[in-house]
Design a protein that fits this description.
The chain is mainly α. The protein contains 11 helices and no strands.
Length: 289
């Protein structure tokens, strides 16, 4: 009897197949997910592929002067020649060192300062006039001032990146703290949380998504402002490469430098997206960013 009882459930399991069924379901889900990822990648690549095709064809068909817009294949050849000579790697390292230094300092200063201004009304009242004055002054307009005060070395370039990146981070952090759901604050206070715990458990987690929006904006700004700053008095860097290529009429090299800046900007943004998802894993899943 005991043998029959043991055999029948096993036979039932063989028919219904909890483990094999789950494995089959898993195999059914994985191809669907892979197909969705491939479809998304193909859709996103389509516009870029069309742009490159138009770029390649327009100079060859005489629609534009190839002296000023060479075909994409010539730009790609110039890019590989710069890479083989080591010049591209040297200029990229110089730009990344300056950009990441200014960006990191902006995050280290902007996030804590934004939390203080957003949370403490007295700090906001004290610093608001200065914020309104400086945030409406473009970073590139102050570039001559930075060069005059700090010289044409690394300090002025890192400082201009710091200044430009600070405002998106600071303003978004202030907005994040001030726009936390009041219902969450009332519920937390009703539980008797002290101010420090309220700030740690409610304000900070609720502010993270908006803070990262400012950080991603600052990441794009750090590349763009640096390229402009490197066109003044720099001896290395992607901005220097672009500017020197223009003066020497090495147009394919100029476009190769511009493409490198674009690729670095896209890669940096995707890295920040990954970090943001890591810090906001508690949020409901959304569509691709």
């Amino acid at each position: 009897m005991s043998t029959d009882v043991e055999v029948r459930p096993q036979a039932g399991r063989a028919v219904t197949g909890s483990n094999p069924g789950n494995g089959a379901a898993g195999h059914r889900i994985r191809p669907d997910r892979l197909l969705r990822v491939l479809r998304t990648a193909a859709t996103r690549s389509l516009a870029v592929g069309l742009l490159l095709a138009v770029w390649e064809a327009s100079p060859r068909l005489g629609l534009v002067d190839r002296t000023f817009l060479p075909p994409f294949s010539e730009v790609l050849d110039a890019w590989f020649r710069l890479l083989q000579s080591g010049q591209l790697a040297t200029d990229t390292r110089a730009s990344l060192a300056r950009s990441l230094s200014g960006f990191g300092l902006a995050v280290a200063v902007g996030v804590p300062l934004g939390l203080l201004i957003g949370w403490y009304r007295a700090v906001a009242d004290l610093l608001s006039p200065l914020l309104e004055l400086f945030r409406n002054t473009a970073a590139l307009a102050l570039l001559p001032v930075f060069v005059l005060i700090l010289g044409i070395g690394e300090t002025s370039k890192i400082s201009i990146v710091l200044y430009a990146c600070l405002w998106p981070i600071l303003l978004n952090t202030i907005s994040a703290v001030r726009t936390v759901d009041p219902t969450l604050l009332r519920l937390a206070r009703s539980l008797g949380l002290p101010p420090l715990r309220l700030f740690q458990k409610v304000i900070l987690p609720a502010s993270v998504p908006v803070v990262f929006t400012g950080i991603r904006l600052a990441g794009a700004v750090s590349i763009l402002v640096l390229v402009a700053a490197e066109m003044v008095g720099a001896k290395a860097g992607l901005g220097y490469l672009i500017n020197a290529s223009q003066y020497n009429f090495a147009i394919p090299q100029m476009y190769a430098g511009i493409l490198t800046v674009s690729v670095i900007g896209v890669a940096f943004n995707q890295l920040l997206v990954v970090v943001e998802r890591r810090f906001t894993s508690w949020r409901p899943a959304r569509g691709p960013s």
